[in-house]
Amino acid sequence: MTDQDIKFIQENIINFESVALGFTRNLDHAVLNEYHEIYKRSLDPSYVLNSWCGGCVFDMLKRLSHHYENVMSAKQAEAVNQTNQTNDKIQAKNPRGRKSK
After folding, report:
1. How far, in Å, CA of 37 to CA of 66, rounded?
2. What's the pTM value of the predicted model, to 2 decimals?
3. Is 89 a residue whose pLDDT tops 90?
4. Residue 31 DSSP symbol
5. How far apart are CA 6 and CA 98, in angstroms?
6. Helical H segments across the chain, by residue range
7. How many other CB atoms sit within 10 Å of the CB of residue 57?
8. How far is Cα 75 from Cα 87, in angstroms, rounded to an integer?
9. Do 30 and 38 contact (CB within 8 A), yes or no?
């Protein structure tokens, strides 16, 4: 999933929130087509969406939202690991303890 895909999803996150609540609202065809393209790039290049089938749209959005959550969790874990590695490199100059004479 590209940064552009993530930005698009974040701008339209309300659609994933409605799927989490168990429904979808009427989506603009341009938005629906972009979701479909993201789905094909990220999950299944051979996927064909019937945009007139409400259940098909719901299932696609549900799978795509699950994939988005996994991608974001992985990015967050990667950022934490980089922070920990940076912190491991930092060493105290004067560790606490007895001073030498």
Report:
1. 16
2. 0.76
3. no
4. H
5. 52
6. 3-11, 13-20, 29-42, 54-89
7. 20
8. 18
9. no
